[in-house]
Write a structure and sequence with these properties.
The complex is a heterodimer of chains A (216) and B (274). With 216 residues, chain A is mainly alpha-helical. Chain A has 12 helices and no strands. Classes of the chains: A mainly alpha (216), B mainly alpha (274).
Chain lengths: 216, 274
């Protein structure tokens, strides 16, 4: 990837700020996202609050491709801007930086929108823990696990589906005898057997996760 | 005011007994409206639910736009609730067939959907009869409103849900593939795909996923999901629409579809949209 010159990034930031139509904003955001420049992060985060879903999708993609460099800007988001927060959860879930932990836990446990809870559940399963000391890894993983286990009772099928995905990825790298792995398998077993309210698609996804965890 | 109602604010959770009580009284149609909705939403198995909904369905009158929550709104909700209460609601099929002849097209629409959900084969002939004039008659826009002469989407989809692939049914549905409104074309393609499994109808729905209007793309997503057409999975994933809707459509492919691609590819596709 060749670096985009700072002047170009600055010009594209200005284009986003000057955009005066929904389509113009979408195009300008796509161009800015394509720079993959850390300097673009605050502006991409700003776009999340503009109530333009097309542009927000482009901004989320751009922020995810920036990875860790986008996290600070995402965490500084105005917590009262609900729409922006929902997009930020998706970006943080995609980035997998452990600094997003609190926001993801909060989103899975209490966000009103199923689409946000679903993104958070997936994200909690794929936080990058490799850079942390062992004891801290264990603590973070435990908190993710507890939140995912609690969300197996979520009222929306799509969130329970995402919980199955999150549980699988959270424990996939652990040794077979790890307690967390056993707890995740028990929860997946429950989802795979379903109940009155668990649709076949959730049961099949949980069964798939379980079979992958049983034969590593 | 009865004590049971006095303590409850609008929107508060209510019990099954309370829902039945609200539907049974007849002084306040807005309470009946909510009671009927509740019984369907909660899939009430109470033996009184279906008989009460049947009488609510009979309580209708010519449309009066000034009447607040009018009786027909209660009847509409009663029809919708009956659609969710199989098998007990099979007893109400004659009432729903009768409602299919009501002058209020909103009621006909609700009755058609309920008959589809109940897979009432007795409805096939009357549904076909309503559609028999084709796009130029049943599908003609009314002079006084943007609505069509018949609630074509609901009538077409009910035939698909009931699921009997008689040549006469296919012959009634097929002309709607060239209706001027893309939502009607989508409904017709869905029904033909459900009934015949013929991939050209799936291809037509996939084409509609590219339509410039979001509303049409959303409808085509739901219709592919309803038909469970698995070859459409990549086109579904790539549609410019909310991931929530794509996930619902893909769920339909997993649960209702057969053949290739298998579950593994479909589930991986869903995982990527979370």
């Amino acid at each position: 990837m060749s670096a985009v010159p700072p002047a170009t990034v600055a010009a594209r930031i200005e284009a986003v700020q000057r955009a005066d139509s929904a389509l113009g904003l979408l195009r300008a955001t796509q161009e800015l996202a394509a720079c993959t420049a850390p300097a673009a992060a605050p502006t991409l985060v700003e776009v999340l609050g503009f109530n333009n879903p097309g542009a927000a999708v482009a901004a989320v993609d751009g922020l995810i491709s920036l990875g860790a460099a986008a996290v600070e800007a995402l965490l500084q988001l105005d917590p009262d801007n609900y729409g922006a927060r929902a997009w930020a959860v998706r970006a943080l879930a995609g980035i997998g930086d452990v600094r997003g932990l609190e926001l993801l836990l909060d989103a899975l446990g209490s966000d009103v929108a199923a689409s946000v809870r679903r993104a958070a559940a997936k994200g909690l399963g794929q936080l990058e823990l490799g850079g942390l000391p062992g004891a801290e890894q264990q603590g973070v993983r435990q908190r993710c696990l507890e939140a995912l286990l609690a969300a197996t009772g979520d009222g929306e099928w799509v969130v329970r589906y995402a919980v199955a995905v999150g549980l699988e990825s959270l424990v996939a790298g652990l040794p077979a005898e790890a307690l967390e792995r056993q707890q995740a398998r028990d929860a997946l077993g429950g989802l795979s057997q379903g109940g009155d309210d668990t649709p076949p698609v959730v049961q099949r996804r949980a069964a798939l996760a379980l079979s992958r965890l049983e034969c590593p | 005011m009865p004590a049971a109602a006095a303590g409850l604010e609008a929107g508060e959770p209510i019990s099954e007994q309370e829902a039945l009580r609200r539907l049974r009284q007849s002084d306040d149609p807005s309470q009946q409206y909510y009671g009927a909705w509740w019984l369907g939403r909660m899939r009430s198995q109470h033996p009184e639910a279906v008989p009460l909904l049947q009488s609510a369905l009979r309580q209708r009158r010519p449309r009066d736009p000034g009447a607040g929550v009018e009786e027909n709104a209660v009847a509409r909700n009663a029809a919708r609730a009956l659609g969710k209460l199989a098998p007990a609601a099979h007893a109400a099929v004659p009432d729903l067939l009768d409602t299919l002849e009501d002058p209020d097209d909103g009621l006909r629409e609700a009755a058609a959907r309920a008959l589809g959900e109940l897979r009432a084969e007795a409805a096939i002939a009357p549904l076909c009869h309503r559609l028999a004039g084709g796009p130029a008659v049943a599908g003609a826009q009314r002079p006084d409103s943007p609505r069509l002469a018949e609630p074509c989407e609901a009538l077409l989809e009910a035939l698909g849900d009931i699921g009997r692939a008689d040549p006469q049914v296919l012959a009634v549905v097929e002309p709607f593939i060239s209706h001027e409104r893309p939502l009607i074309r989508s409904a017709a393609a869905r029904t033909l795909l459900q009934l015949s499994g013929d991939s050209r109808w799936g291809a037509l729905l996939v084409e509609l996923l590219d339509h410039p209007q979001l509303q049409v793309r959303r409808a085509a997503l739901m219709d592919l999901g309803a038909a469970g057409w698995r070859p459409g999975f990549e086109a579904i994933a790539g549609t410019l629409a909310e991931n929530s809707l794509k996930l619902m459509a893909l769920r339909g492919l997993v649960e209702r579809g057969r053949g290739e691609p298998g579950d593994g590819a479909l589930l991986a596709c869903m995982d990527a949209l979370l």
